[in-house]
Amino acid sequence: MEKEITALQKFINTAIEFLTNYSFQVIGALVVLVIGHFVGRWAYKFMFALCEKKKLDITLSKFLASCAKMMVLGFAVLIALGKFGITIAPFVAAIGAAAFGASMALQGPLSNYGAGLSIILGHPFVVGDTIVVTGQSGVVQEVTLSCTILTDEDGVKITIPNKHIVGEIIHNSFKYKMVENKVGISYGDDPEKAVRAVEKVLEGFPEVARTPKPHVGLQEFGDSAICIGCRYWIPTTKYFQTLSAINLAIHKAFQAAKITMPFPQREIRVISGTVPVK
Questions:
Q1: Where are the domains of the chain?
Q2: DSSP 121
Q3: pTM of the model
Q4: Range 7-35 burial, b when 16+ CB lie within 10 A, else e
């Protein structure tokens, strides 16, 4: 029992001595960290507002604002360590050695960060654009140092590591996605009448982009029908919804105009006769 009491007394004495010698340093360090936290938040908002004023894209603005915040927090930590008389030189050396060793084991993640920095600074696309890359298509929701996040019309979240984007062919159609469609009419119908009907349908949909202008014309002569081709742009977020509505409207317009949409057909002729015998 005496040993426990002695150990407790020793602990109390050590705590009192620590508080006596370092209480002001601890309080000062905490004050510095709290101030650094609030100044970091202010630096983030200030840099983000400055980037918006300069009309930079949202991805680059967030990146620069985060860098400003991290710099402020880093200085606050260094000042707090200085309150205890701790020098940062050994830490810098240790971090450098650890980074060298970890770089060999983390080549994959590090390559993602390098590719993410290239995307953020080069901004081949920004948040809100519609891109097609590595066989994936969607609207860009967020670009981070490690990955790019897309979403499609169904709300599916697609996460692509940045190293799979840099160096690939990127199709960027911004907020719209192009529709390439064709509809067949009978050879007995007037193709100009069908073209005008399709153009009128497209004009009735405000979702269809006016620039670039929709293109409708005679695309090809099929086996069973004359194919009227149409190319137009609609919002990516409403792609299938708008496409289905336009196709239904075209069908109704052709019915109203007495334009026939033939089904595939073949004409077979049987020629009877005798085969001469040699």
A1: 2-86, 125-173, 176-256
A2: H
A3: 0.60
A4: eeeeeeeeeeeeeeeeeeeeebbeebeee
Amino acid at 261: M
Query: What torsion, rounded to 10 degrees, do the Cα atoms 57, 60, 61, 65 define?
Result: 180
Domain 125-173: top CATH class: mainly beta
Same fold, 2-86 and 125-173: no
CATH architecture, domain 176-256: 2-Layer Sandwich (3.30)
Comparing C-alpha atoms, which of 158, 117, 121, 164 is closest to residue 139?
158
pLDDT band at 101 (very low <50, low <70, confident <90, very high): low
pLDDT per residue over 39-81, tens digit each?
888 988 888 888 888 777 677 778 788 888 888 888 888 777 7
- The two structure tokens encoding residue 88: 């940062």
What is the chain's length? 278
Q: Is 158 exposed, middle or buried (0-12, 13-18, 19+ CB in 10 A)?
A: middle
DSSP code per residue over 138-186: EEEEEE-SSEEEEE-TT--EEEEEGGGTTTS--EEEETEEEEEEEEEE-
Q: Which single residue is written with the structure tokens 């000062």?
A: 28
Q: Which residue has the tokens 């891109």?
A: 131
Q: Are 140 and 131 in contact (CB under 8 A)?
A: yes
Residue 67: strand, helix, or coil = helix
Provide the CATH topology of domain 2-86: Helix Hairpins (1.10.287)
Q: Torsions phi, psi of 209, nearest 5?
A: -65, 140
